[in-house]
Specification:
It contains three helices and five strands, in the order ββββαβαα. It is elongated. It is an enzyme of class 3 (hydrolase). It comes from Alkalimonas collagenimarina.
């Protein structure tokens, strides 16, 4: 069982694992072993609560496809098992982030003092710019 939060768990067979060859440096070893991991998870057919499914599908994340699948590829380590753990951790963080509801922002008014300071700064700035203006002289 994969524990997302205290009350949400997923069965191991809901995740599909695929091991592929990693790109990048590694010498001759990189051409022989499949150390990179690709985790695949179908949101619609999963046992997640409806709220989690809806939030995952609405989430703007490059790891979620148009067809409603989560694809996470990991090739950070040269070890297949470490890559598997990293991908699983990323998946858990992604799903768990859908469980938090952000606080609503309350609009506030600026204080009287801050309004007065702002107006004073505007007057001072205007006076500074007024001194830069070219005054018409007797030759103009």
């Amino acid at each position: 069982m994969i524990e997302i939060s205290n009350n949400i768990q997923l069965a191991d067979d809901e995740l599909e694992w695929q091991f592929i060859r990693a790109s990048g440096p590694g010498g001759q070893h990189v051409n022989k072993t499949s150390t990179a991991v690709q985790l695949s998870f179908d949101i619609q057919t999963s046992s997640l609560p409806i709220m989690y499914k809806e939030r995952l599908l609405r989430k703007a994340d490059h790891r979620i496809t148009q067809s409603g699948k989560v694809l996470i590829k990991c090739q950070q380590s040269r070890s297949q098992e470490q890559n598997r753990q990293i991908a699983l951790q990323q998946f858990i963080e992604l799903v768990a982030s859908c469980g938090f509801t952000p606080k609503k922002r309350k609009a506030t008014k600026p204080t009287y003092g801050s309004q007065q300071r702002r107006l004073q700064q505007k007057k001072q700035r205007g006076a500074t710019k007024a001194t830069r203006q070219r005054k018409p002289g007797p030759h103009d």
